[in-house]
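Project outcomes to date are best conveyed with an example. Our students and postdoctoral researchers have been running inverse folding experiments weekly, and each run begins with a structure described purely in C-alpha cells. The record below, which covers 293 residues, was selected by the lab manager from last quarter's runs and is presented without edits.
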C-alpha cells in the first residue's frame, strides 16, 4: 500500500520539454514512474526520447488525460506561469498535482490551492520535492536510490531533511515519503498526510518533519492527540534560528515565542510524539519505537 502515489499512477509532466523538466522526467522514468506524457502547447504532437522510452507531448492537460488516462501531473513551469498551469490541471479534473516550482507569489498559491480544492484536485507543494512511493513511483525530484520500500510513512516541510531521514532509515524503508513544501501556503498539510498514513495498513510508524514558523506542527499535534493511534516520531528544524528572521523557506519566520522550534517540540511531545534534537537522533528514536522501546 501507499498514499497518493502508486505503481498504477499515470503521470503527466507540465514543463517536460524545459531543462529541469527533461532532467527530472528522465530520473522519474528511471525510478519506474509511469510517465505517460508531457504538456507544452507549443510542442504538441511531438515526442521526446528518454533513453529507450519515447514520451508524447500534448497541448493541454485535458488532451493528455483523454489520450492516456493520466491521474497525476508534476509541474515544472516557471513561477509566473505556475498558477495558470495548476488551474488548467484542476479544470481538466486531474486527481493530484505536484507543484515543484519555487518562488511562486503567495497570492498565486492562495488562489490556485483554493481553486484546486473546489475542483477536487489535491495539490502537493508548491516549492516542494514531490513524493515517492519507493519501488513503485516517484513524482518530483526526490532521489529514488537512497531508500527502499518499507513500513515508515514520512511527511516533511524540508526537502533536504526528507532525503536525510530516507537515507538514515534506508534499512527499514518507507511506504511513501511526501515533501509538502515550506511555503506559507501549501495544498497538502501534515494533517492530511497523518490521516492518510493512519489509514494505510502498511504504514506502521509516521515520521513528521517540521520547521520554525507558523503553527502547522502545533495543529498536527492536536490532530495526533485525537485521531492517530500509530507511533509518531518528529523533528523540528530551526532550534538555533534567531527570532524575527526568515530562515530558508518563505514560511519559516519566528515572531516572539510563536512558531519556535521549542514550542513545536513541546506541543508534539505533549501528545506522545518522540521528537529528536538532530536528524540522526530522530532516526534512532524511530528504531527504538519500532522495537517497542
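After processing, the design step wrote out the following sequence:
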Amino acid at each position: 500500500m501507499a498514499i497518493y502515489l502508486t505503481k498504477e499512477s499515470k503521470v503527466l509532466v507540465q514543463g517536460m520539454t524545459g531543462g529541469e523538466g527533461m532532467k527530472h522526467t528522465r530520473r522519474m522514468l528511471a525510478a519506474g514512474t509511469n510517465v505517460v506524457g508531457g504538456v507544452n502547447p507549443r510542442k504538441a504532437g511531438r515526442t521526446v526520447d528518454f533513453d529507450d522510452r519515447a514520451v508524447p507531448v500534448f497541448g493541454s492537460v485535458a488532451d493528455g488525460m483523454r489520450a492516456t488516462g493520466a491521474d497525476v501531473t508534476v509541474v515544472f513551469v516557471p513561477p509566473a506561469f505556475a498558477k495558470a498551469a495548476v488551474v488548467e490541471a484542476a479544470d481538466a479534473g486531474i486527481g493530484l498535482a505536484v507543484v515543484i516550482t519555487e518562488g511562486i507569489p503567495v497570492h498565486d498559491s492562495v488562489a490556485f490551492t483554493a481553486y484546486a480544492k473546489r475542483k477536487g484536485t489535491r495539490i502537493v507543494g508548491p516549492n516542494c520535492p514531490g513524493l515517492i512511493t519507493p519501488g513503485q513511483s516517484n513524482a518530483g525530484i526526490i532521489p529514488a536510490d537512497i531508500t527502499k520500500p518499507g513500513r515508515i510513512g514520512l511527511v516533511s516541510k524540508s526537502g533536504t531533511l526528507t532525503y536525510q531521514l530516507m537515507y538514515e532509515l534506508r534499512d527499514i524503508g518507507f511506504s511513501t515519503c511526501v515533501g509538502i513544501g515550506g511555503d506559507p501556503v501549501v495544498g497538502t498539510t501534515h494533517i492530511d498526510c497523518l490521516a492518510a498514513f493512519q489509514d494505510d495498513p502498511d504504514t506502521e510508524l509516521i515520521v513528521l518533519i517540521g520547521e520554525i514558523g507558523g503553527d502547522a506542527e502545533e495543529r498536527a499535534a492536536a490532530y495526533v492527540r485525537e485521531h492517530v493511534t500509530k507511533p509518531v516520531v518528529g523533528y523540528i528544524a530551526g532550534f538555533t534560528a534567531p527570532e524575527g528572521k526568515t530562515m530558508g523557506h518563505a514560511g519559516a519566520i519566528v515572531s516572539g515565542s510563536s512558531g519556535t522550534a521549542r514550542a513545536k517540540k513541546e506541543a508534539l511531545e505533549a501528545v506522545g510524539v518522540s521528537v529528536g534534537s538532530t536528524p540522526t537522533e530522530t532516526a534512532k528514536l524511530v528504531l527504538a519505537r519500532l522495537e517497542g522501546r
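Residues 15 and 76 are 5 Å apart (CA to CA). The chain has nine helices and 14 strands. The training component of this project remains on track.
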